[in-house]
Amino acid sequence: MGMCEVGQPVPVQIGSSGDSLREAFGRTLVQLGDQYLNFVVLDADIAGGTGTHHFRKAFPDRFYQCGIAEQNMMGVAGGIASVGLVPFVTTFAVFCLRALEQARLSVAYAKRNVKIVASHPGLDVGPDGGSAQCLEDLAAFRAIPGMVVISPADPYEMEQATKAVLMYDGPVYMRTGRSPAKRILHPNYQFEIGKGQILQQGKDVTIIACGVEVARALDAAVLLAKEGLSVRVVNMSTIKPIDRELVVSCAQETGAIVTAEDHNIYGGLGSAVAEVLVRDHPCPMEFVGVKDSFGESGEPEELAVKYGLCSKGIAEAVCRVLKRRESMEDSQATQMARSGQ
Fold first, then answer.
1. How high is the pLDDT of residue 328?
2. Which Pfam families match (predicted)?
């Protein structure tokens, strides 16, 4: 097999073992409940689907059932925050879009300390199909002024991120996830809002990923290593504010970037990274994500393969970006030769 002739995907990590992000979130709320008495949880009649059933059982007097009325729930959260409590608003990501106006006005515009935590994002939703697979949430909430946007990579990071958003003073939107997720981060890993972290060093290209795509990016690096490529993998769990310094250093040191996200290619992580590069250090870039379409019913890994979000899809994007970089370098060399430099 020649350079960049990508083989079959490595064995599945996402969905094969481990805790789901939503369950890790719910259990972390319980762990924090005794220590921090100033937060409450709001639910839209789907606590079993968001992981907050753990908190409901442990702290029933701090759990508020708002029913299937997400816009009202978001407004209630703004009111609760106005008297000094910290509300966690929990529902499915698609239903967060239903309450986007209230998130904008009652939370962000009013500068309320509300934490919006959404399960069932992206193709990870699987069999529920395109109507339930939210591929627009990162873009929508990233565009709201003052809103922090986070997508943790594994259950361990979810635990840390949940405490971090509770400690943060301001509105936050955070994704969880439905499928079991393998733990991929080192025990010494420390989450920090606004900071990405290099999980694997490499000199030929950088893959910047978030959420379930981080594990797949690591798998892609394994595939590419067999072809002699040294791949850097970055976990960019905070999409907003993006870690500009890390993005620029990766572009300077590897000269090519691939982003990977379980989201539309427009408006999410890829767009955030591109906004940094176009201003501070332009370089060849490829976007791995759903290409402006709705999803369909299927198992998460089957959908990842079909829509190009699997490890092989990420590896193929790496090959494309390296070819583009090579072409640009050849063109620059030709121009320099013609100018006599």
1. 80
2. Transket_pyr (PF02779), Transketolase_C (PF02780)
